[in-house]
Write a structure and sequence with these properties.
Radius of gyration: 24 Å
CATH architecture of the largest domain: 2-Layer Sandwich
Strand content: 15-25%
Number of domains: 2
Structural class: alpha+beta
Helix content: 25-40%
Largest sheet: 7 strands, mixed
Distance between the termini: 57 Å
Oligomer: single chain
Number of helices: 19
Number of strands: 18
Amino acid sequence: MNNKVDVNTAREIGLTSEEFDRIVQILGRIPTYTELGIFSVMWSEHASYKNSILQLRRLPRNGKKLLVGGGEENAGLVDVGDGLAIAFKIESHNHPSAVEPYQGAMTGIGGILRDIFTMGARPVAALDSLRFGSLENSRVRYLFENVVKGIADYGNAFGVPTVGGEIYFDNSYTENPLVNVMDVGVARHNYIARAAAKGPGNLVMIVGSSTGRDGIHGATFASEEISEISEAKRPSVQVGDPFTEKLLLEATLEAIKAGLVVGIQDMGAAGIACSTSEMSAKAGTGMDIDLDRVPLREQDMSAYEIMLSESQERMLVVARPEHEESLKKIFNKWDLHAEVIGKVTDDGFLRIRRFGKIEAEIPAKSLTLGEGAPVYKRESRKPDYIDRLQSFDPKTLSIPQDMNDVLIKLISSPNIASKEYVYQQYDYMVRTDTVVMPGVADAAVIRLSKWLKDGSMRKGIALSTDCNSRYVYLDPQLGTEHAVVEAARNVACVGARPVAITNCLNFGNPYKPEVYYQFEQAITGMAKACTQLDTPVTGGNVSFYNESPSSAVYPTPVIGMLGVIEDVSKSVQSSFKNEGDLIAVVGKNMYEMGG
């Protein structure tokens, strides 16, 4: 064991002195450097949700159509009838995109795609919710252009249509762009896979690409504020390969359909450390892992580096011993690695070996969300600005004399102007199931005809992402209620019934009481709106620390809404159709401003 590890080492990799003491108590000794690294990434905000889980538990997470409880699997899973299920989820890749926008965006969409097809679902649609500063800033233009290009290049090459989303520009996002990507897939009920390492004696296999040094401590990096030294953390940004991901998709779905998979999980944030510990903890088992068997791009990698690498396009698979050769045959056919790196054990310990030496021996449950990872409730205080802004009386504003000039200024704003520049870069017609395309309606519509046994062209799903962060800034609870209701309205406006949501909660530093107040109130608003609309929360993502030394972003709880439409031929677009048709306003006009 490495006795050189101490509390200062822990602080250097993102742990607090109290957390270091807790680790020593759990292990009954000073951890090795590899063990400390594993705790660091697994107890990071990104992996453990330690500052958000108490609030997230207040959200409605059960419903008649949910096939798994919210947050229990890699993605939410909703029954849409006819033996079909929709897997969907939204996640952020904000920090990586702030320092390396192209690769940050590419690996953002790549990671969420893997979350979907590890469930046994084929991805059928992607959406993006993006936030940037003013386009007059050259750095912002660079971020904007390369994020959009990264999403387009990965999605187009992989073969998933990017069918919708939203883009907002505000100075609060100048140094902290938000890159949230939602993916949606279709699965049959009898081919759904789970992320649990069941069955002591079963094999643990790593499949997909080889492992390199890219992305080490990416989860920890995502749990820090953006600073001037963030540029030095480019090695923490992973590198994506959509063509390999496409091969991994086909091999994974083939293996699941053949009944060869006991459990499977994507290797995203925290890499092997995360997938081994989470799959073990979920099943109440352990794993004995030999890192000498992991396919490496660089042979001199240490146990620490291998465990924490976030190299893309990799999965962890648990399989019965008799299925080893069949699995290898499938993945090798698709020109992918498939190597046995260990076995499932019954003692609950994650045991890691390198060059014949035990480098880590940790109770799996001590590492994971909802089990042994720390849980905190931070101080909350209402920001002073809220009462000040809400006391403003819009009736004190003078009415402009030239309404034509007002109209021109409004429609020339990037927040209102057409986003055609963006969505024309996306292949939104790949797979030929896109019924309602970007720019013509409030939500995208995808037909499910390829999965319906009777060949019906009717049933489909509607998808939308929404959040007006200015509303949330002005009133965190009410603004978040508006985000949920807007997403539901957008889905309803194309003719679909809203059934469930996923969310991506983008906030500043939770250790600042005013930020935690915004987060806490946003959860209250989301819970209220989702309960009233009967749209349970299937899961999602929390992204804290979206701030720089100069400012935090507006609180931005993005809502991804799923709706079901029984007849896509009756879907409705938003354009005027015929001269002489009546135009009506539904609802009340109020004297309101600020959005």
